Amino acid sequence: MEPISVNLQNQTSIESNVVQSLRLLERCSKMVEIKQIHARLYKTGLIGEPNAVSRHLASTASPDFGSLTYVRKVFDEISRPNTFMWNTMIRGYSNSNEPEAALLLYHQMLCHSVPHNAYTFPFLLKACSTLSALEETQQIHAHIIKTGFGLDVYATNSLLHVYAISGCIKSAHLLFERLLERDIVSWNSMIDGYAKFGRLEMAFEFFKNMPVKNVVSWTAMISGFVGAGLNKEALNLFCEMLIAGVKPDKVALGISLSACAHLGALDQGRWIHAYIAKNGIKIDRILGCVLIDMYGKCGDMEEALEVFTKLEKRGTSEWTTIINGFAIHGQAQEALDLFVQMNKAGIKPNLITFTAILTACSHAGLVDDGKSMFKSMTTVYRLNPTIEHYGCMVDLLGRAGLLMEAKDLIEKMPLKPNAAIWGALLNACWIHGHLELGKQIGKILLEIDPGHGGRYIHLARIHAAAGEWDQAVEVRSQMKHRGVSKLPGCSSISLNGIVHEFSAGDGCHPQMEKIYWMWNQITEKLRQEGYKPATGDLLLDLYDEEKERAIQYHSEKLAIAFGIISTRPQTTIRIVKNLRVCEDCHIVTKLISKIYSRDIIVRDRTRFHHFKNGKCSCRDYW
DNA sequence: CTAGGGTTAG
């Protein structure tokens, strides 16, 4: 920052002085300097110049400056703020963490009979959209029409956006139909509105029919797929976008990377990372997090760490993401070490950081560490544990066999236990054979979460293990009766940029015959090693032939068989599964890793298993 | 001035 040396003595050159001051203002980056200039505006009388004051407000109210209180003070001193100044303040608050203030200001603006201009409504409606303030939006809608801005494309697009984003997609659609002038933004808002609420067919209808698409149109659609869990479709669309010759920007790349993360599509993730590097796209905070997360969720912690280390700035999110990476890999010590380093670096952990840390302790069975971290949340970091944190603790204690302690925690916690809490306890009961308690909890779960198929299966299993076949069958038929279906198990493997998906007993894959042949080969070798199927799950399904077949061909088994025939010997096989690995598959995969000398990395619904030479990184604790 | 983004975990 150069010293401020504006010659203010000569009254005739006051205009050029204003201009010069304004230039300085725009270059200002520190609050102190802004305040200095403000003081100078006062001293020199320039404070009476609406232009100078306006610019001063504008640069101070920009999102780069956190402190709106200061701007507000300046604003409040102005006797008759003009429209520009009101707009500036509304814009400031619409981008802040108190957007309500924007609405209040607008109200005051009306009271003072200050006229609007075309810039007033977009700012104001932005505040409405973050607040999902529909009533206010309707009032503003009326004002827009009354004051003759009903044909202004910025005002109407802003309206359209609020309606679309706040779940009033019908109003948005109606408005869209009535618009005389629609531009690409109008279309994109419709796509985003429908996509965000899971109405992908409608979103796609708009996407398909719009006259010209830009990168935002594609991204809104891709993001809709990701939001609906259709990550494969999201990636396909990303590829189509490239083929259509639309250059992806950081937003498109980020959302596609998160699709890769969900899918465990390492190759595609690497490709996007390389694209970012090749095109000189700056890795901002979000891209940094997504990259770390992608590598972590795709099983490559070395690369995740590499990205993390190379980042210019590391904030809470970046640390949290890398810690979570180690957590899901069962590398609790690394996670805990990073937590210490994070503290040393002066970065404050947040609630999500603690979820990651507690997950790490839980997966590794570090009961004492977990307990002390949980305690430190309130005592050291002043964070109130949420239901997720209690869930982690119940899981941690229950998994370690401390069922009574887990139950005790549930009874004493200040929050109402939800399905996830009981689910964690039920799982613990199952692992440690506490069948009586398991049955009680299973019943609770069926009541509070009647649409979740997995709960029925769990309870039925427990009945079966207790030898209560009638009741096991009863639970299953209850499930059928209520029309609840089990989430089908699905495993995927990514090869040469193509994600292959398998579901249990699947016959869909073009190479299915070969895959089943390979699986039979594998079973033969397993038998020679003395393997016998873990039949716990099988017995329950005896009454249902189709399911029995499905269990023999669990989706991950098919994916592994496909992996072995489709890759060179020694190549690591990476599988992603949407459910937890069952005991039988875990045993089998360990054996396969030894017999075929293959590293097999399986990502479960909650964690990674690295199978190597007959052993698994989870040390059979999962 | 209006439109698309991430980290928990279900």
From TrEMBL:
Entry similarity comment: Belongs to the PPR family. PCMP-H subfamily.
PANTHER family linked: PENTATRICOPEPTIDE REPEAT-CONTAINING PROTEIN (PTHR47926)
Lineage per the UniProt record: Eukaryota, Viridiplantae, Streptophyta, Embryophyta, Tracheophyta
Keyword Repeat part of the UniProt annotation: yes
Keyword check for DNA-binding: no
Pfam families noted in UniProt: DYW_deaminase, E_motif, PPR, PPR_1, PPR_2
UniProt name for this protein: DYW domain-containing protein
GO biological process entries: RNA modification
Domain of life: Eukaryota
Alphabetical keyword list: Repeat
Organism for this UniProt entry: Juglans regia
One Gene Ontology MF term: zinc ion binding
Stretches assigned to the DYW domain: 530-622
PPR repeats: 82-116, 183-217, 315-349
NCBIfam families on file: PPR
